[in-house]
Amino acid sequence: MTPGQLMVTITLVLLAFASPLAAQDPLPIEGPAAERIEQYKKIRMMEFLKLDEETSIRFFSRYNRFVEELKALNDRKNAYIDELQVLVRREASDREFQKQFDQLEALGAETVEIRNQYLDDLSALLPPEKVAAYIVFERNFYRNLRDLLRDAAKERSGRGPR
Question: Could you tell me which of 50, 111, 131, 142 has the fewest CB atoms within 10 Å of its CB?
Answer without folding.
Answer: 50
